[in-house]
Structures are given as C-alpha cells and as structure tokens.
From TrEMBL:
Single annotated GO MF: sucrose-phosphate synthase activity
Domain Glycosyl transferase family: residue ranges: 298-472
Gene: SPS4F
Protein task: Plays a role in photosynthetic sucrose synthesis by catalyzing the rate-limiting step of sucrose biosynthesis from UDP-glucose and fructose- 6-phosphate. Involved in the regulation of carbon partitioning in the leaves of plants. May regulate the synthesis of sucrose and therefore play a major role as a limiting factor in the export of photoassimilates out of the leaf. Plays a role for sucrose availability that is essential for plant growth and fiber elongation.
Name of the protein described by the UniProt record: Sucrose-phosphate synthase
Organism: Arabidopsis thaliana
Domain Sucrose phosphatase-like: 607-794
Amino acid sequence: MHGLVRGENMELGRDSDTGGQVKYVVELARALANTEGVHRVDLLTRQISSPEVDYSYGEPVEMLSCPPEGSDSCGSYIIRIPCGSRDKYIPKESLWPHIPEFVDGALNHIVSIARSLGEQVNGGKPIWPYVIHGHYADAGEVAAHLAGALNVPMVLTGHSLGRNKFEQLLQQGRITREDIDRTYKIMRRIEAEEQSLDAAEMVVTSTRQEIDAQWGLYDGFDIKLERKLRVRRRRGVSCLGRYMPRMVVIPPGMDFSYVLTQDSQEPDGDLKSLIGPDRNQIKKPVPPIWSEIMRFFSNPHKPTILALSRPDHKKNVTTLVKAFGECQPLRELANLVLILGNRDDIEEMPNSSSVVLMNVLKLIDQYDLYGQVAYPKHHKQSEVPDIYRLAAKTKGVFINPALVEPFGLTLIEAAAYGLPIVATRNGGPVDIVKALNNGLLVDPHDQQAISDALLKLVANKHLWAECRKNGLKNIHRFSWPEHCRNYLSHVEHCRNRHPTSSLDIMKVPEELTSDSLRDVDDISLRFSTEGDFTLNGELDAGTRQKKLVDAISQMNSMKGCSAAIYSPGRRQMLFVVAVDSYDDNGNIKANLNEIIKNMIKAADLTSGKGKIGFVLASGSSLQEVVDITQKNLINLEDFDAIVCNSGSEIYYPWRDMMVDADYETHVEYKWPGESIRSVILRLICTEPAAEDDITEYASSCSTRCYAISVKQGVKTRRVDDLRQRLRMRGLRCNIVYTHAATRLNVIPLCASRIQALRYLSIRWGIDMSKTVFFLGEKGDTDYEDLLGGLHKTIILKGVVGSDSEKLLRSEENFKREDAVPQESPNISYVKENGGSQEIMSTLEAYGIK
Ligand SMILES: O=c1ccn([C@@H]2O[C@H](COP(=O)(O)OP(=O)(O)O[C@H]3O[C@H](CO)[C@@H](O)[C@H](O)[C@H]3O)[C@@H](O)[C@H]2O)c(=O)[nH]1
Ligand SMILES: O=P(O)(O)OC[C@H]1O[C@](O)(CO)[C@@H](O)[C@@H]1O
C-alpha cells in the first residue's frame, strides 16, 4: 500500500519499505494475468507525486503486462490511489490514519471498472472483482473494508507479521516495549492483522512454519479450532457461528527469466582468468557491479559471503559483521559482501535505515575489516543476478541472519544462481531448507553459530558442492505459474463458500415511461394531483415494479396529472447527520432537532432544494429514531435513508420506511446470529454482575443486531478486550458502545455506520468525496471510523453530552493518532450555536456552493 511500486527497475532495498513484498506482488500480478481464466488484475498502491521520489510513482496507471495474444484477458495494471498528503512519501508505519481515504479512493476505481466491464459484457450490470487480496497488514485492512463493502471474498498474504517482529525485538532487549511501539506502531499493525484475519476467507502463506509459528500467535487464528470447524462443516454439523480463515501454503515463485544456463554449470571458482593478480588489471570485461564490489578487497579471489537485504534492523546484519569480524579463520578464508539497498548520503536516509548503516560502518572500523568487506553504495535491480553470480563463481555462500524471516525471497534467488545458503532458523527458511536441502540453519541471536556455519560451508568443498547441486535441482518447486494454478483453485473454493449478493448501482431513468421504469427498483413517484404514489413496503421488488408501471399508465390516462421521479440516485451530494447526542443517562438529547434543521437550512441555501440528500446515521433503533423525531417535530420524510443500530440496518422513509433487505443480506457474512447472545452476556462484565446489570434490550434487537442494555456504573470490558475474547472463540462481529455507554450493539462484522454509508454511496452513484458528515466532538465507540476518508466532516462543537469512547481501547493499545488523521483538510469545526450561517460558510470553504 505504501507505494514505491513499479514494474521496471524496482528500487528494492531503497528503504525499509521496499522489500520482498514489492517484488512478490508485481511478479504475482503479471503471472496471474497470464493464467487462463483471469480477465484482469489490478494492483492498487499509493500514488506519490513528490520531488523526493521518481515521477513514475505518481503515474495514476501503469500497464504491467499486455494481454497474451488471442486471449480475451486485458492484462495487469498498477493503479495508484492518492491518500494522505500527495506530495510526501509516508513510511508504512505512519500510513495508518490514511487507510480510510485509500479505501474510498479504491472503491471509486473499482466502481468505475465494474461499471465499464458491466457495460461491455454484462448488459449494463456491474461486474465486481472476483477476489480482493490484501498484501501486508496495511493493505490487509484495506482489503477487509473493500471486501466488506462489496461482499466479495477476501484473501490475505502477511509477508511479514507484527507479532513475530515484536517478540524478536523484545527478545533482543535493545529497545523498550514503548519504544518498539513508538518506532514501528506495532500495536496498530497487529490490530490490522487481526482485522484482516477476521475478514479473510483464506490466508496464503509461503510455508507451513508461517501457519504454525507465525499466524499461530494471533487471537483470530487457532489451528485446532480451525480443524475442528472444518470437520464440523464437512459433517454438516453447525459451527455455532464460529469462523476461522482457511490457511493454505502456496510458496512464491521465482522469475527465472534472468537465470542463464551457465548459472547451473560448475563454477571454476577462479577470478584469475578475469582479473590478474593486480585487482586493477581486469583482463576481460566483467559486469560493472563486480568491479564495484571488488574494488573494496585486498584479495578479491577469496570466496564471497554475500548478504543482501533492506537496511532494516530486523535483518540483523550487525550480528553478521560481528560474527565475521571476530572469527579469524573466516576472515582469512573469505570476503564479506553487504548489499543493503542504495544510498547517496546516509544522513539523508530515513532514520531506521541510517542507524543500521552507521552501525555496520562502525563495526567495520571497530574490527578493522578494511579490504575484507564490500558495501557498495549503489546497485540496479538488473544487477542483482550478477551479484549472486559473483558469489557463486568464487564458491561463496549466501547468508540471511534475520531475527525473523517470514519467507525469504533472497534464499530462493541464491539457490537459483547455484549459491549454498546459511539462514535464520526463525521463520520460512526452515521450510525452504527442507525443500531445497541447500544449506544450514542458525540461531540468529547466536554469533558463534553464524560464523561456524559459514566456515563449515566455505571450508568444506564437498558440502558446498552438495548444497549447490541440491538447490539447483529443486528450485523448480518455486514457480509462479504453479503458484497461480494452485491459488486460483483455492480462490474458487472461497467463492463457493462465500455467500454472494450482487451489489447493484441505481439507475435513474430520465423519462417517465413504462419502458424506462421496467428495470428500475429504487424510485418512487410524486403525483401532482393525487399526492405521492405510495407502495406497500412489504412488496417484493417485482410487484413494486409492476405497480409503478401500472401507476404510470393510469397517470397518462388522467388529464392534467403529471408525476416526478423521486430517487436518491438523482442527488448530487449527501449530508449525513451522525451526531451521537446523548445525555448522561443515555437518552437522545432534544438538540438533534436543532442540528437537523440547521443542516437542512444550510443545504437549501447552499445548493437549492433537491440536489442534496440527507441521511441520519445512529446507534439507536428505528423505533427510537422515530420516537425522538416525532417528539421534536423532525420530519423523517426529509431523509433519503435512516441508518440504525450502528449500521446494521438501513431504512428508506420514501419507501414507507422499508428496510433494505439487500443490505441485510449484504452484511450477514459471518454473522453468528443467536450464538452470540449467551457468549456476549457472559463476557461483557469485568466483575460478577447482578441480574439486572446487563440485560437484553429487546426492543432494539433485530435480526442483525443484538442490543444489550448496561446499567450505569457497571464495569464492562472495553471494545478491544471484548473483541479479543470473541476472536479467540472464532466469533467475528462488530461491537459498538452507544447511548453514553449504556448500550452495546453487537452487529455483523461488515456492518457499521461507515460501511452503510459506503454502501449507499455505491448504490446511489454518489462518491464519498461528495458527502458531508455532521458529527459531534465525541461519540459512540465507532466515532473514529467516521473521521477518516474522502468525505468532508463538519464537527459541531459542544452538542454531545456524554459519549462512549472511554470504552474503546485500553491504555496499552495503540493511540488515537495511529488511527485518525491529526490534521486533515477534510475536517472543520463549527462552534456551539453556530447555526446554519456558520455551517454555510464552512460548506463554502469546502467549495460546496
Ligand atoms: O538491496 C537490496 C535488498 C533487497 N533486494 C531484493 O528485495 C527482495 C527482498 O525480499 P526478502 O528477502 O524476501 O525480504 P523482505 O524484504 O523482508 O520481504 C518480506 O516479504 C517477502 C515476500 O513475502 C518475504 O519473503 C520476506 O520474508 C518478508 O520479510 C529480494 O528479491 C532481494 O533480491 C534488492 O534487490 N536489493
Ligand atoms: O515491517 P517488516 O515486518 O519488516 O515487513 C517487511 C515487509 O514490509 C515491506 O518492506 C513493506 O510493505 C515489504 O516489502 C516487506 O515485505
């Protein structure tokens, strides 16, 4: 998601963000688009238009691969979506607050592709993605939102996982828990990984080890429960609302197009034929990167120990330099080559990378390794094969001493060029070495073990030759075409398991004729003579349609009668009131009336009647909304939609307050229904509770919302704690405290106020940037979700009495600034009693006139 992704001359190792994932996703996208049955692959990443990065990262679209000749596929593309400040590179640790904006931008792209594919091949009905695949924690979270909004199966690949990284950094004891979180935003990242697990139908892992030892650390994945649920499903026994994502091992492939036949031929181990005894006298032309490396060495003929990685602390290069520096026999026998990305000036690099490089340089000086270690400043992507070749030619070894390596693309690259390996025993290398049998595993914290293993391979010619041969023989196991075939068959299973409900984009006919209304569902008619044409909300779509058509013919036969189409699809903008205005007892405050009036007045004065539609989004049930609006003389007919129970239901006042049954089906995925009741009642309190402390709030419960009433003063668990407990049981829900923390709404995972609004925005064809949210300064525990995104926000100061946010997260969890943009041009404030005038000026400042 962070950007710096392109198809050619990838800048791998440019910083700690540009690593294996970049190469993996580009190669996967190309390989998938070349696989039969795949129509199009879009790789979505952040757009960066900044002088500090190459202009190519600002191009909105890049074609990655052309469709194969004669196929009806249309290839693969990189699509760059802006989010966060456009002219700045944002490192992955600081991207979190911008995720909702990326989601909205991505939805706009997907809707436009879905529409145009629909026009081309599906009689105008949109064609939605077959699968949405999130790579790494950040894009995992994005994919979870997109898949939820579109009800499309989601797949996840972790690449590298927060819990492991956290554990290893703690074990190293170099920095404190607090500093780890400050530097890596690790708690926020872990929550994103948990959320991705909640939503994912399937997780693609690279090794078995990744499932057991890496994903096994997460609340949302339990291997035993996963097996149990699989067996129950197979036997047709109910899983009691519990879900586990399916884990599959599909190792990544290798791009063999750069591997030459010579790479598998016996190396002579001799550079003398190329360079004479004097290293400045190169006899034959050699790849430029070889000269670049050899200029560091006093004796370039020695075997080369090669390490190649991002300049990231996790890669543990300093332990390698210490191991080399302190082992005299190794220093005598071999040279060390460190390829740690590219740099011009260390001072100008991101702090995380410059610290690593400075430490390495200090150690080289400390052990006086001059003439024995090479650390070139630059290398091109196209030169990487030559780097491996050089090491193989000198009968050297590749080493990856990372504290933890989820998979390790460099290890399969090394094997493909005939280079034996020494690798960390923490992570995927365990499986790689098992599959290739081409090297040794070491404890990355054990310096002695590292030098021993290197010495063993460099000194033992027989072992070296055996490992090289084995690597070359087995490397075909890492193949992209094979990966894609396997992948697609698993995705097909996901599609079969996933309930589909196809999201339709509303079409609004220009003319009012029986024909133009034939395929239209979401409209009602206003008659000039006999009032509105009303329809029974209970009617199914087909019957409504027939009645509408009949009404039109009737109208046409009546003299002097005309009708106007009433449909939210006609709106140019949406104004959403989501003010959680409760008093200390959790009752809705009467000021909601004033807020709504001001908003409507400002809208009318700004754009004129009819152009702006209104939506009310609340944690209350429909009945509560109706009661309070009636009491305060608010006309619900002014609204195009009422989003109730924290986003689990949508009602349409212009259709006799009919509930949107499609939305209910749309969000029902993974909803545990009845099974959630007893569990949540048992879990909610932190202390033993009296009988009437926690009760079911029956009048607000619905098929998709389990509402619980909490007596004031009763100590309940925070959202993060409760969610963790549910996850550990395989129950995937969204939980929201509302009504000043006197109510808990348990709703489907993909239902929320923000997702309901995204749903309406897609259906009505009004993109989120044309939406204005009216919020208080605080609110229900889903308040933060309403702040980020492409929409504009107007925060009304002082309108909210009591909020629920104290029950959102515990102190040890991530901070609000890791979730919500601190300064956003999309958020403005209106002072208490500012009224419609001040709202109007704020709208004007947003360019809404
Ligand atoms: O200076 C450098 C540094 C790296 N690379 C390349 O970058 C990639 C690095 O990938 P990898 O060794 O797999 O490490 P990470 O960058 O850490 O990638 C993450 O994502 C990979 C793909 O899922 C996993 O294999 C890793 O374990 C995981 O940490 C390889 O292709 C390298 O050849 C360069 O070209 N130049
Ligand atoms: O933050 P970690 O765990 O080091 O993650 C490494 C991963 O992050 C990236 O650098 C950025 O997404 C990837 O290229 C790599 O796969």
